[in-house]
Amino acid sequence: MAQSEITMDYVNLSDGSARSNALGRTAAVSGRNLVRLVAVSFGLLCVLQAALNISLRLALYNKTPDIEASCTNLTDELKRELINFDQYFQQGWVYFRPSLYYISSDTKSWQESRAYCLQRGADLVIINSKEEQDFTRIFHKQTWIGLMFRGTWKWVDGTPLTKSYWGPGEPNGFEDRNEDCVKIKFYEQENSWNDIQCGDQNFWICEKRIAS
Fold this sequence. Notes:
- The protein is α+β, with helices and mostly antiparallel strands.
- The chain is built from 3 helices and 8 strands; from the N terminus they run H-E-E-H-E-H-E-E-E-E-E.
- It has helices spanning 2-90, 110-118, 130-137, and strands at residues 94-96, 99-103, 123-124, 143-149, 153-155, 181-184, 193-196, 203-209.
- Strands 1, 2, 3, 4, 5, 6, 7 and 8 form an 8-stranded mixed sheet that branches.
- The longest helix has 89 residues, at 2-90.
- It starts with a helix and ends with a strand.
């Protein structure tokens, strides 16, 4: 009886050991499969990464000439602009945002003054702001500006006068004269404009706008 129990216990132990070994083998197989799966997945990721890197390099290689050409063109354009600015500065032009200005050292009529400006790719000054008005007065000269009367007061670019800085009692067409041109006369004060005959001799201010 005891022997049977021992046998049974042995058999049971053997079956249990077999089951344990089977489970161990199954776990080992599953573990190896998982490792293989991870290894294969990692390998695929590496292949995809390599393909992506190659594609990006090819794309950048193909685009590089265009980028270099654009940069070269931009650099050349900037060099030309700087050279042009230097030429203007050497000729006595001054910069006040956003334009270059030339203040004459001799006198001409309004039309002659404008012709001088036009020959240099500029025009008589158009005053668009209080800051620009103040700027034109700091030279303490009576200077032509680009304002004229053609049925109404207009700037040389054809735009109508909206904001003015007329001196006291101006414009007045003094003694019924055709005072169709304008100069800065009262430069000590903000309201400095005076209408006057276009043939009079005055200094002038050219303005060359810089593209923004």
